[in-house]
Amino acid sequence: MLVEVLNQVNKHIPPAKDVFKNLSYLNPACVLSQTSKANVVDLPFQHLITSAIEEQYRKVNFVNWLEEKAFQKTGIPQDSEQFWFGVLGHPSFKDISTYALTCLATPVSNAVVERVFSLVNAVKTKPRNRLQTDLLDAIVRIRSNLILNGKCCQDFSASAAMISAHTSENLYMSQSQQNVLVPSTSASEPELLSSSQQDCTEDEDAALLLLDI
């Protein structure tokens, strides 16, 4: 029974599963080990490996990384991304660190994309269907950042750079951009919203959205 279950699972898992399995070879505990370090041929995404990457991979465990500036205070991290970000600052290992970060950036599922779409659908509802792309993008980025850092808008503190960016050029669009086409309620041609009408509707939408952030 268990054998049949295992066979069915293997049939539904794509062959690319081996790629993600080999990502564990980029972990600092494995890369810096003298005994369990993987061979170059076992690393993921072989088509990305060049002779420079191969040479740097062979030398990476001969460096005392605890003496490097990136790891002097915190030590060598267990997280693969943090480790390779620190290695990226070493001029002799830029190729291997860039390769490793590229491999680690490979999405293992579409869950992240689905979360973004869910967030967009929660922000842009039928009553708020006049939201323009720039405003929608800004709100989604703000909410994503707050969720990622476990913060609330009430705890957010704006930096001096953020406040200085609040200029009329950044906050208000030009007259030509404000005149947008919207579907007319009659059978005639689409009508243009005036600048004052557009400002009013956008202010109403922005006020509603800020309450939800």
UniProtKB/TrEMBL annotation:
Organism: Plakobranchus ocellatus
Cited Pfam families: Dimer_Tnp_hAT (PF05699)
Alphabetical list of SUPFAM superfamilies matching this protein: Ribonuclease H-like
Domain of life assignment: Eukaryota
Domain (HAT C-terminal dimerisation) ranges: 65-146
InterPro entries referenced in this protein's UniProt entry, alphabetically: HATC_C_dom (IPR008906), RNaseH-like_sf (IPR012337)
GO molecular function, one term: protein dimerization activity
Range of residues in the leader sequence: none
Identification of the protein by name: Zinc finger mym-type protein 1
Origin organism lineage: Eukaryota, Metazoa, Spiralia, Lophotrochozoa, Mollusca
